[in-house]
Design brief:
Helix 1 packs antiparallel against helix 2 and helix 1 runs parallel beside helix 3. It contains 4 helices and no strands. The longest helix has about 30 residues. By secondary structure, the protein is mostly helical.
Length: about 140
């Protein structure tokens, strides 16, 4: 489908990520629901809890920043790009969480199980927070 020239950038946007059912509630915000899902787990250490806290704080700061700038300073394209960034961060964390959780459960929560998956979750949380923080500082 062709779009007017002013909206041609829409064709360049990546396809949406279908939000997994397990993070569609209890709130309307998948990133918040993902955090709630992770916090219910008994498999996380304090280092991951700290990174989850940093992510939800960066998510809130990012959304406050978008809300303050959206009406006056950001184009529709920029708003769409920022929404895509948040969706990609949520997807990355969700996939790392899912892999970690599944591997840990399969090992029946044995000490030291799922170390590569745990490291991937650590990196994903740290990276997502940095991406949201960096987007605000541009």
């Amino acid at each position: 489908m062709s779009v007017p020239d002013d909206w041609a950038w829409l064709e360049e946007m990546p396809e949406g990520w279908p939000t997994p059912a397990e993070i569609t509630g209890p709130t309307a915000v998948p990133a918040t629901n993902l955090v709630l899902l992770m916090l219910r787990s008994e498999m996380l250490g304090n280092d991951l809890l700290e990174l989850i806290g940093e992510f939800i704080a960066e998510d809130a700061r990012f959304n406050n920043w978008i809300g303050a700038k959206e009406k006056h300073e950001l184009s529709m394209r920029q708003v769409a790009e920022h929404s895509t960034l948040l969706r990609e961060c949520t997807k990355s964390i969700y996939e790392a969480w899912r892999d970690f959780s599944q591997e840990h459960e399969e090992a029946q929560r044995a000490a030291g199980s799922a170390l590569p998956e745990r490291r991937a979750l650590f990196v994903s949380l740290k990276s997502a927070s940095a991406k949201l923080r960096n987007a605000r500082s541009k």
